[in-house]
Amino acid sequence: MTMRFHILTLFPEAFTSVLSATMLQKGQERGALQFDLVNIRNFTTDKHHVTDDAPYGGGQGMVMKPEPVVSALESIAGKPWRILLTPRGNVLNQKRVRELAALESLVLVCGRYEGVDERVRAYVDEEISVGDFVLSGGEIGALVVIDSVSRLIPGVLGCEESAVDESFAGDLLEYPQYTRPPTFRGVEVPEILLSGDHRAIARWRRRESLRRTFETRPDLLEKADLSDDDRAFLASLQSGRDG
Length: 243
Fold this sequence. Notes:
The protein has helices at about 15-20, 20-30, 65-75, 95-100, 140-150, 160-165, 200-215, 230-240, and strands at about 5-10, 35-40, 50-55, 65, 80-90, 105-110, 125-130, 185, 185-190. With about 240 residues, the chain is α/β, with parallel strands linked by helices. The strands form 3 sheets. It has a 5-stranded parallel β-sheet, sandwiched between helices. The protein has a two-stranded antiparallel sheet with strand order 3-4. The chain is elongated, with a radius of gyration of 22 Å. The model has no long low-confidence stretch (mean pLDDT about 95).
């Protein structure tokens, strides 16, 4: 399977260094990823390649014109899933990332300035936000989507299990990780991790994952798949907090 990303942007140079490094570059070399950088300016019809204009009704800033954006969208063959990166979209989460990774082709439309003309929204399938904050443009948001989705495409990661064990993979935060040396500035690696008892290690990791989620993102526990043992452990944590 090859995941194809079509990236519509005014600044294709914002992507070149990231797409040619580490995991994303290896994914391309293995044939698992393909990137198509589409410069929206190439779809303007005036000699100055103007892509924005003042908003009707007045106001601050400029708005991206609909013609070049829609023409760029219509230049992409097939029926890829078209995403507009915008603060008013649904906030991206790991569940949606998994769903996007199951598709064959994504179009990522990067807005700029004060946003895109409202009429562009009729030509996309979905609007996504990467968080409740303001960015200068959709490029960084698009890179977040690319990185998070690419990790789940077979052949991208050197170790496929990495995508399974990480934070949010099971609606929980990841357990603490340690490596050499066994002691660093007086802080030792938990003894259980040095025991060689894989069953005990797995249980410790599960509980630490639950503990970390309970302490910092308890909202995730509402949708996590929990066993009876998990619930009993969480109850003990809750009792400790109440006490």
